[in-house]
Design goal:
The chain has about 525 residues and is α/β, with parallel strands linked by helices. Helix content is about 25%, strand content about 20%. It contains 16 helices and 17 strands. The strands form 3 sheets. It has an 8-stranded parallel sheet. It has a 6-stranded antiparallel sheet with strand order 12-13-14-17-15-16. A 3-stranded antiparallel sheet has the order 4-6-5, with no helix packed on it. The longest helix is centred in the middle third of the chain and has 16 residues. The chain is globular and about 80 Å long. Bound molecules: alpha-D-glucopyranose (GLC).
């Protein structure tokens, strides 16, 4: 297929995740907000990304910074109001972009009126909207552990039962296999879809159904103390249940009542277990998240293997996606070496599949050390010794060199990286050699070349050091991408004679024409070569 019209916007676009609290504060309370995003749309358009995913903006006690929702169909006053949201939808569309919102159907806040009713009595009509259990032999119903530490069961004195929470005790899990809950959640989706949102990023999709028999999870023989507590167990009964697919298919049905919307799914599973989330008939998530680049070693062989495996597993008509950062994982530049950040940009923007970028990675915001007394993330507070706080990757966007990088004039909710006076959008946008300018060029190239947007992928070569592959359109337009993952020079040799020109290189001084079978690849070098036809 070469015709753009045959591809959906979420296949040809580039997704940019905005961590709302940290993007732009417009009312100087130290917290990012919806109006702040509106004020920065020109920047995002200039950068060339065209699908914005924004993290939760709903009323919330903020125990998990918005992933604990107390009202699914309103806007938290810290982030603005419904008029701001409507303006955001209109302005995003006016900028020819799409808006995807975070959607958290797995759990509510314990302050949601559904849960308040549910917990009020065993006979309440909403009791079965959540997962309540009587103690087994005086103890919690089973051994399931919360992702954020400790037992996943919380005892309620009032009604003498436990409720299940996969995350914080303030985030009780809904039972989406209950038809009333599914109806209520479907109406929430319709509410936002009718407002014109272009889709949802469904939070913790692989958690959406639990074993009805509540069987104990088996012990994980591969557990290491550095892992989160919940990894002591293999979560085979609490997550990734066969029943989950029916739940997701129902959510998808609601989405499909509207034209041309998208469903992304957050799924932390191995590729073979993630693929079923496309649905047997492609009737579940359009984009079940592919997080491999967040975990595998940054080495040519590992990356080559991950791409091959994923490409081979993808069912017919399923569209790939690749993420390189998000608000739950360490910042890209700190995960890999600084010298590899441009190669990461080339890789992400030349792989087959929708790229997912995390705000600030385009200017190289690093992990920011947050002193103990300033830690905000519950995961950091509940497991202080494991280095799992997510604050370091959630620091405010660095716009310019003014106070607090132009993010806010008040005290920011989280401290900024102290390099913000040198590393910010304003400085980097004026510098042709900056990481930001590099991203902009790569994005523009991808978006103007059918071969890079939806051409075929073939590996040409890989060893311990170098990965090389082509992307080719049906008309035969071909790009050869060569990436050196090491800080040593290596020779790349190719059976066929190569003829072409360097379109983009990690260092601007490498340009010009390519002839012959061999190329000397400098340390950390990445090349995007347009091959002659
Ligand atoms: C998802 C979110 C994460 C949140 C969790 C619980 O993993 O990305 O930030 O803590 O769900 O809602």
């Amino acid at each position: 297929m070469n015709d753009a019209a045959q591809h959906k916007w979420w296949q040809t676009g580039i997704i940019y995740e905005i961590y709302l609290r940290s993007f732009q504060d417009s009312n100087n309370d130290g917290i990012g907000d919806l109006r702040g995003i509106i004020n920065r749309l020109d920047y995002l358009q200039w950068l060339g990304v065209n699908i914005l995913w924004i993290t939760p903006f709903y009323p919330s006690p903020m125990k998990d910074f918005g992933y604990d929702i107390s009202d699914y169909t309103a806007v938290d006053s810290r982030f603005g109001d419904m008029q701001d949201f409507d303006d955001l939808v209109a302005e995003v569309h006016r900028h020819n972009m799409k808006l995807v919102i975070d959607f958290v159907p797995n759990h509510t806040s314990d302050q949601h009126h559904w849960f308040k009713e549910s917990r009020s009595s065993r006979f309440n009509l909403k009791r079965d909207w959540y997962i309540w259990q009587t103690p087994a032999h005086g103890k919690s119903p089973n051994n399931w552990l919360s992702v954020l530490g400790g037992s996943a069961w919380q005892w309620e004195e009032l009604t003498q039962q436990y409720y299940y929470h996969a995350f914080l005790k303030e985030q009780p899990d809904l039972d989406l296999t209950n038809a009333e809950v599914m109806n209520a959640i479907s109406d929430v989706m319709r509410f936002w879809l009718s407002k014109g949102v272009d889709g949802f990023r469904v939070d913790v999709m692989w958690h959406l159904a639990k074993d009805k028999l509540l069987r104990d999870n088996p012990v994980n023989p591969n557990y290491k103390p550095s892992m989160p507590d919940c990894d002591r167990l293999q979560q085979i009964y609490s997550c990734d249940r066969p029943e989950v697919h029916e739940v997701i298919a129902q959510l998808r049905k609601v989405l499909d009542e509207y034209d041309d919307r998208v469903m992304m799914g957050e799924i932390y599973l191995s590729p073979d277990k993630t693929i079923p989330y496309y649905g047997e008939k492609n009737n579940e998530a359009h984009l079940p998240s592919n997080f491999q680049l967040l975990f595998i070693p940054w080495k040519a062989k590992d990356i080559s293997g991950a791409i091959e495996e994923y490409e081979a597993l993808l069912p017919k008509d399923a569209w790939p996606n690749w993420a390189i950062g998000n608000h739950d994982r360490a910042r890209l530049i700190s995960r890999i070496s600084k010298d590899q950040t441009r190669n990461a940009a080339i890789l992400l923007l030349t792989l087959r599949g929708t790229p997912v970028l995390y705000y600030g990675d385009e200017i190289g915001i690093p992990q920011v050390q947050i002193p103990k007394e300033e830690v905000q993330d519950p995961q950091g507070l509940l497991m202080p010794d494991k280095g799992l706080s997510r604050d370091p990757q959630r620091t405010p966007m660095q716009w310019d060199k003014s106070l607090n990088a132009g993010f806010t004039r008040a005290k920011p909710w989280l401290r900024l990286s102290n390099d913000y006076q040198e590393q910010n959008v304003e400085v980097q946008s004026k510098d042709d050699e900056s990481l930001l300018s590099f991203y902009k060029r790569m994005i523009a190239l991808r978006q103007s070349e059918p071969s890079l947007m939806y051409g075929s992928y073939s590996e040409v070569f890989s060893d311990e050091n170098i990965l090389a592959y082509t992307r080719q359109s049906v008309l035969g337009d071909t790009f050869l991408i060569v990436l050196n993952f090491t800080d040593e020079k290596h020779l790349f040799s190719h059976a066929q004679r190569l003829e072409g020109s360097i379109e983009i290189a990690t260092d601007a001084k490498w340009d010009g024409l390519i002839f012959g079978n061999e190329l000397d690849i400098e340390p950390n070098m990445g090349l995007v070569i347009r091959l002659d036809k």
